[in-house]
Amino acid sequence: MATESRPGPLLGCIADDFTGATDLANMLVRGGMRTVQTIGVPAAGMHIEADALVVALKSRTVSAGDALAQSLAALEWLRAQGCGQFFFKYCSTFDSTDTGNIGPVAEALLDALSVHGEAPFAIACPAFPENGRTIYRGHLFVGDVLLNESGMENHPLTPMTDANLVRVLQAQAKHKVGLVRYDAVAKGADAVRAAIAALKRDGVRMAIADAVSDADLHTLGEACADLPLITGGSGVALGLPANFRRAGLLEAAGDAAALPLIEGAAVVLAGSASKATNAQVAAWRESRPAFRIDPMAVARGESVVDKALAFAREHILAAQPQPVLIYATASPDEVKATQGALGVMEAGHLVERTLAAIARGLHDVGVRRFVVAGGETSGAVVQALGVQMLRIGRQIDPGVPATATVGADPLALALKSGNFGSVDFFAKALRYLAGGAS
Prior knowledge:
By secondary structure, the chain is α/β, with parallel strands linked by helices. The chain folds into two domains: about 10-245, 3-Layer(aba) Sandwich (Rossmann fold); about 265-435, Four-carbon acid sugar kinase, nucleotide binding domain (Molybdenum Cofactor Biosythetic Enzyme, Chain A), CATH 3.40.980. The chain contains 15 helices and 18 strands. It has helices at about 20-30, 65-80, 100-110, 165-170, 180-185, 190-200, 215-225, 240-245, 275-285, 295-300, 305-315, 330-340, 345-365, 375-385, 425-435; strands at about 10-15, 35-40, 50-55, 85-90, 120-125, 135, 140, 145, 175-180, 205-210, 230, 265-270, 290, 325, 365-375, 390-395, 400-405, 410-415. Strands 9-10-5-11-4-1-3-2-16-17-18-15-12-14-13 form a 15-stranded mixed sheet, with helices on both faces. A three-stranded antiparallel sheet has the order 6-7-8, with no helix packed on it. It is globular, with a radius of gyration of 21 Å.
């Protein structure tokens, strides 16, 4: 194992966005690891009791330099906590650009974990078969289509126009990128370890790993037990708890997903423009109250936040309270039109600032249960609410757990990546946060 027998956290994780962090934490809880997620890098000297720690950053779309600084600070804090193995988590659709940030951050972490000047090896595996993300011959599929035909080619911030992940990662990396082919994965962990050894002899420091099933992810997890760093989506974390259990470092934790029941009004906030979130918004609007945020109206200085809060109060404080949806979700054409008028980054930041301000206002009138759609939106909302730490509960939908804040002002949160969740996810998540089931 990459860690040794001792009390305290076993696995330290760094996630490049907030929903990705909860997605990863969800996988670890399912494996019986008591998991705490921090919002940003905590203060030095703070000690947290958990089997796994996940530091949630907002580094996916910042400059590569900022992403490196944040990620290395998170690594330093996790090492101080006593973690012996580390995980760099990014999106299962490999959201990135030719300039980063997956490659630069992964290489910086490898350099920081080097021993006697020799940097370790790491796999890169964003596969998540449960949510339709599979990798074969280095190509990422979303359902039955290649990544660049899945709608991700229209992503407003990180358009993915190439499904060949070896090629995508090589464009971001300074060192040689390889491939752990499915041929090896299908033969088991020993064959994967042999493939990794061969790649290392060929000068490879990172390699995309094929995976088309959960069994493949368990194989990869077992094969990577001795690697200091693993990178990928949350799926590959499926195989990690068993490594610690085999090494006698982790006991079964039947209460790993236990959360307190939190009462209070409930809302849904959606900023993602993904296909899945568009469908979820449409399903909600068929029978439930919803208020749309128009970014152009915000840019014109109209009192959109006040109007949204008034709409919410009308429903959540009524004699028969109703949860509401407040959303900026739009079609790809509408998103492009807004970006054309405001600029790509400003359009995104404007939506985030608006939904963050609305979240603060909703909290002031008694909302304590929030369902949030979109990684960037989730980051903005939890920061606006002053959330510093989350305990991870049971899964609502693949990749999306219920969570509860740690602290004096408890909140129940479901933070959803834009592409995740069933069509009825919003209603389902509200039932889970209220202590019910789907």
